[in-house]
C-alpha cells in the first residue's frame, strides 16, 4: 500500500525531482551528439566490471573465439583470456549449473544464453539452484550471478525462438529481473546487475542491439550504475500513462508522438525492472493521468501487464477514470510468415488505439 | 513401369535383404566398394564393405543429391534477397547422409531431425516447392507458412520435423521408437542430431532409456565437426560420438559416401529390428555453408579446409565418378540431368514466390486440436477477440 492515499494534487511526489534531472541530462547528451549502441553499452559494461573485479567472468556459447553470437562479448577473450571468457558446449543445463556453483563460492559469473528460449533447458538451475538458495540456506549462501541474453521476438525466427520470459522469471522471489531499453539502461543496469549480490535475470532484445541512443559523459563513467527496481519516466504527460519495457518502450514513445498530434499528452514509463516492479512510479503516474495502457510483447495471460493492472487497481482504484487497457503479444505461438508475425506482435497503432479508448476518444 | 516404382521396388528388394544374400544378385546389379572401413563399438561384425546397387538406384541417388544441392544454393539466394527471413541452415555438402540413409529405410520408418532439415524433408518425400514455400512463409508451405525453415514436417511419410532446440531430437526420437514398439510395428525410428548436440544431457537420458527398454532406435549423429562456430575438439572432451556410451553399440561411417551410409543404416535397422535395442551411427560429414545464413563459416575454419573437402570428398562428385566408371551415365547425360533439375528447382522457387501469404484467419488456427469454445486474443484484446472454432 502506498503511503497515504491522498487526492490532494499538492502532495509532493518524491520522484519528480530526479525526473527533471534525468530529462536535462538526456537533453545535454542529445545536444552534444554523443551516441552509443546498446551492443557497445553492454560490451563496455562487461569490460569495465571485469577490469574492476577479478571475480567476474563470462561463460556461454560462442562468447569467446566467435566474439559473441551477437557480438556483445566482442574483444573480451583477447583482453581477459580463456580463464575468464569461457566458450561452453551446447549444454545449458550443465553450464548454468556450473555458473551457479561457482557463484556459491563467491565468484561472479555472467552466464550468456544465446537466447532465453535455450535457457528453458537450464531453468531448474536458475530457479531452484540460484533464486531460492539464499532463503533456503537461511542467509548463508548468496548467488551473485547474472543470466543475460536476448529475450522475446526477433524477426521471423519462429515459435521456438520468439518467447518473452519476463513474466515467468518476474514471478519468482529470489530473482531480480531487469529489462533495459536504451544504451544508458543497458550500461547502468548491467553494471548494477554484475555488482548485485543476488541472481539477476537480464533480458535484452536482439533488435535493440544495433540501435543508437544518446549517452552523457555521466553514463560513460566506469562507476555509472542505475538502481534495480526503479522505473524511468521517459516522457512526461498528463492524459494517459503508458507502461512498457524493452523494445516496446520505443513503440510507446512513437505512439506518444502520434497521440500528441491529437492533443493527447501521454506519459511513457520505461519499467526497466520487472522484479522488483516499481509500483510507486507506476501508481504515481496513474494518479496524475487517471488512465493506463500497459504494454508488453509477451503473452497476455499472467503477463507483466497483468501484474501492473493488479497493482494499479489495488492501490489507485479511486483515481482510475477508465478501465485499464492491455496491449500484448497475441495469445498464440509465434507464426513464421511475415504477415502473421506482424499481427502477433504489438504495433504502434495498437498502443495509440488503446490510449484513445482509455481517453474515451474512440470505442 | 515408371522409374519411381522401379526405384521403390529396387529399394524394397535390396533394403530387406540380409548381407549374406549379396551373392544372389539381380543380373544388372552393380557392386560398389566402400573404401573407408567402418569403425565399430561393441560390435563383432560391421556393415558390408560392398553395397549392391542398380542403375536405377544410382540415377535416383544422383538426382536426389543434386536436387538437394541446387535447393540449398537457391535457398541461399532467396535468403539474400530477403524472401526468406529469420534463420536458414543449409545442408550442402551433407547430401550423402540423408540420401544414403533413405536408401535403406522406408516411409514406414520414422525420422526426426533438428533445424538443418531441408534435405531431410526432401529425403522423406517432401517437394522443393513445399520447402521453398515454407521458407518464404506462404500458405502452400508444408507447415502453411507458420513454421519456417527450422520447422518442416511430413508426418504422412513419418517425418516428424524440424526442431529448433539442440538435443531434443534424442528423447523425441526415442518416443517415436517407443510408439513403434508399443504398436508392434516392424519399423525403426531415426533420431538425428549434430556434433554440437553430442554433449546434451538429454541424449544420455534418451540412450539410457532406449537401451533399458530395447527401443528400435537409430541415433544418427551428423558430425560436420563444428557446432555453430565451435570445433568439436573445443566442445567435447571426447570427439567421437558413436562410442559415447558403454552399453549401446555404434558405428562410425564416412558420411560423404552415400553407399557407406546406406550399408550402415541397413545394418543398424536390422540390428534394431532383431530385438537388439538401439544403436548409434556417426556420419563423418561436412557442411560447405556456415552454421546459418548469418554465419560466414570462415572465421573458425579456413577457406583451404572448405575447398579441400569440396575437391576431395564431395558426395555428388563421388557418385558421379562412380556412375561414369560403371557406364551408368555419360558426361553429356549428366549435363542434361543437371540442367533439368536446376530448371525444376528454379521453377519451384518461382512458383513459391507467387504463392499467397497465409490468410489472417490462420493466426488463430491450430493452437489446439480440440479448441471449441476457447477464447483467445490478439494484441489489442479489446479489438481482436476470437472464439476458437
TrEMBL record, chain B:
Coiled coil: none annotated. This is Pyruvate dehydrogenase E1 component subunit alpha. Tetramer of 2 alpha and 2 beta subunits. Pfam families: E1_dh (PF00676). The keyword Zinc-finger does not apply. PANTHER family: DEHYDROGENASE E1 COMPONENT DOMAIN-CONTAINING PROTEIN, PYRUVATE DEHYDROGENASE E1 COMPONENT, ALPHA SUBUNIT BACTERIAL AND ORGANELLAR. One of its GO terms (molecular function) is pyruvate dehydrogenase (acetyl-transferring) activity. It comes from the Eukaryota. GO terms for biological process: pyruvate decarboxylation to acetyl-CoA. The pyruvate dehydrogenase complex catalyzes the overall conversion of pyruvate to acetyl-CoA and CO(2). It contains multiple copies of three enzymatic components: pyruvate dehydrogenase (E1), dihydrolipoamide acetyltransferase (E2) and lipoamide dehydrogenase (E3). It catalyses: N(6)-[(R)-lipoyl]-L-lysyl-[protein] + pyruvate + H(+) = N(6)-[(R)-S(8)-acetyldihydrolipoyl]-L-lysyl-[protein] + CO2. Transmembrane segments: none annotated. Its cofactor is thiamine diphosphate. Keywords: Oxidoreductase, Pyruvate, Thiamine pyrophosphate. The keyword Oxidoreductase applies. Its EC number is 1.2.4.1. Gene3D superfamilies: 3.40.50.970. Residues 64-358 form the Dehydrogenase E1 component domain.
